[in-house]
Specification:
six-stranded antiparallel β-sheet; Prim-pol fold; alpha+beta; DNA Primase, Chain A; 2 domains; 20% strand; 324 residues
């Protein structure tokens, strides 16, 4: 790949690598890094690359942002510390893919990659990878959820607040494909001290009489409420407890989305998504037990918010009665 920054006249179309059906666009004022209008993060408000209103905005010198659509397998990497990222294996990860930067020395840059095995639980989120000194090394912008995106990246040729344009490294570079395991390994190298450290909890997910857990019945996920200052650490997400906070450097909560488990180190307690949801709603304290009283109160809240669950169960029950 060429090391010569390629400058394309402003007002040109969005780069061919990004003229895809699985990327959505937002309009951003010139020289700024984010949209200023309400509802920009709604997928229904996202624009295609050939949208005429977007074209007029760009023609008049505006910036643009983009994010992968819900069906996409693209990831946008916002590299904030190239030296650390490259030292952890990131250089080989993005060497041949489409990149651009507003910094002449390229100590910070953006890269777009394809990752077909992105874990579904990350969709709809934006999460950083931080060093053990709590310095953000790279931020990952995942594909949007069904309704909203977790964030957007400013696109190539836009104007950075520092006065530079985001220049493309190589106009002929394609978007390359990587495996999620390669990204996960980089997170472990960047911050090895806190990766994969959730103890096996002796917590049993509450089960209802229908044989399903509350998590399964209501479609709950530990990702519904992330810790404050959340970041990726290996296969975990770490951060500050959203209810009682933390005095520990780096936070006191770890969640493993694949296992569907959250662990609070202050309270030495682990929960599934239902227990975590009850804590975050204030129905029970962290460290408490998801007993029958908590379950009753929690179900009252969930049934008010998700009345379709009982409605569909009722229909399924009636159908089963007819067949029998």
């Amino acid at each position: 790949m060429s090391n010569t920054t390629t400058s394309v006249p402003h007002g040109s179309c969005i780069p061919w690598q990004m003229q895809r059906e699985d990327l959505l666009y937002v309009m951003v004022p010139a020289g700024e890094k984010g949209p200023t209008y309400k509802g920009w993060n709604l997928v229904s408000q996202g624009r295609r690359h050939d949208d005429p209103i977007l074209a007029v905005h760009l023609l008049h010198g505006g910036n643009y942002g983009y994010y992968p659509a819900p069906c996409s397998d693209l990831l946008s990497l916002d590299v904030d510390d190239a030296d650390t990222f490259h030292g952890a294996g990131g250089k080989d990860l993005v060497r041949e893919t489409f990149r651009y930067s507003a910094w002449p020395d390229r100590r910070k840059y953006r890269a777009i990659i394809s990752c077909p095995d992105i874990p579904d639980h990350y969709r709809g989120h934006k999460l950083p990878i931080r060093s053990d000194r709590d310095q953000t090394i790279v931020e990952l912008f995942f594909p949007a959820g069904l309704e909203k995106t977790g964030g957007q990246c400013i696109g190539p040729l836009s104007l950075h607040p520092n006065g530079n344009r985001y220049e493309i490294y190589d106009p002929d570079a394609s978007i390359m494909t990587v495996r999620w395991s390669e990204i996960e390994e980089i997170t472990r190298i960047i911050c090895p001290a806190i990766a994969d450290s959730i103890p096996e909890p002796d917590y049993r997910a509450p089960v209802q009489s229908r044989g399903k857990t509350i998590t399964e019945r209501y479609g709950l996920s530990v990702m519904d409420t992330l810790p404050r200052d959340a970041r990726i650490a290996g296969s975990e997400i770490r951060g500050v407890h959203p209810v009682h906070g933390s005095t520990s450097p780096g936070g006191n909560v770890a969640m493993n989305p694949k296992k569907g488990v959250v662990y609070c180190f202050r309270c030495a307690a682990g929960y599934d998504a239902a227990g975590w949801d009850a804590i975050c709603r204030g129905i029970m304290p962290c460290g408490g037990t998801y007993d029958s009283a908590v379950m009753k109160q929690h179900l009252e809240v969930l049934n008010r918010e998700k009345p379709e669950v009982r409605f569909l169960e009722r229909i399924a029950w009636k159908r089963s009665r007819r067949r029998s």
